[in-house]
DNA sequence: ACCTAAACCTGGGCGC
DNA sequence: TGCGCCCAGGTTTAGG
């Protein structure tokens, strides 16, 4: 999916488009994506207004009137498309949310949740305690409350490979496979290096490159490697700036050696064996 | 505490 | 063109 820059790009656009709109009705061809069930979500949400939209890690959090929260997770192939109801259909749309502006005369909108692989979900949370529990499961946010001090503490307290620590949402929010690969390359650190063996200087460098690649991802509106789209269907542009992600067999932009692909924690991992030797 | 494989699903790309 | 295989931005769970 959609990692921090992609989900944040979508969040900003959704809030711009949908704040103040109320749910008029929901249609779906894939009830399994609704938690606890399509019926419960639909009944609770229709008539409620979208007050604001937040994000934690890769989770979109719609704050609705009456204190309800509606959560969307896009997983690998989810898309959030905002269309006019009369617009032509989009591929792989699993659910459509009809919205009207409570202030009156503006035209209705349609939020389309498309998801080729059907891994994504829509979850209703009605209990504030439950919402707090969900949020507690995530680590600090880069570009917000992930300080260098917190980062150093996190990486020094794990004996797992550094790349898996970066990907662990309970430790740090929002980093996914693309930005983990690129940040490690920029910092010239081997993805398999044991996290707590990373020196303070390396940790400082990695903290900077993590923030750098995420900011760059945001600047380019995310990476449309395959499925990711912004809310009006536009592609992001970060895929034109990949450093090592997906670059197996190509030349390292720094030293010209061949980029290799290994599997780490079950995920494709790209790196330069020369400048990321250790 | 760590690791791996499998599960959830579909579709795009590649080699033959 | 068609078929089979590999790959996929995420996360959870089962088993060792």
The profile of the biggest β sheet is:
5 strands, mixed
- DSSP E strands, number: 11
Low confidence ranges = none
Strand order of the largest sheet: 2-9-5-4-3
Distance between termini? 28 Å
Question: For the residues shown, what is the average pLDDT?
Answer: 97
Descriptive report:
It contains seven helices and eleven strands. It is an alpha+beta fold. The strands form three sheets. A five-stranded mixed sheet has the order 2-9-5-4-3, with helices on both faces. A hairpin with a 2-residue loop joins strand 10 and strand 11. It is elongated, with a radius of gyration of 20 Å. It binds a DNA duplex (16 and 16 nucleotides) through helix 6.
SSE blueprint and pairings:
Layout: H1 4-18, E1 21-28, E2 34-35, H2 38-45, E3 50-56, E4 59-64, E5 69-73, E6 78-83, E7 93-101, E8 109-115, E9 121-125, H3 128-136, H4 148-156, H5 162-167, H6 177-186, H7 200-219, E10 260-264, E11 267-271
This protein binds a DNA duplex (16 and 16 nucleotides) through residues 1-3, 6, 32, 58, 73-77, 92, 115-120, 159-160, 167, 169, 176-179, 223, 225-228, 245, 265-268.
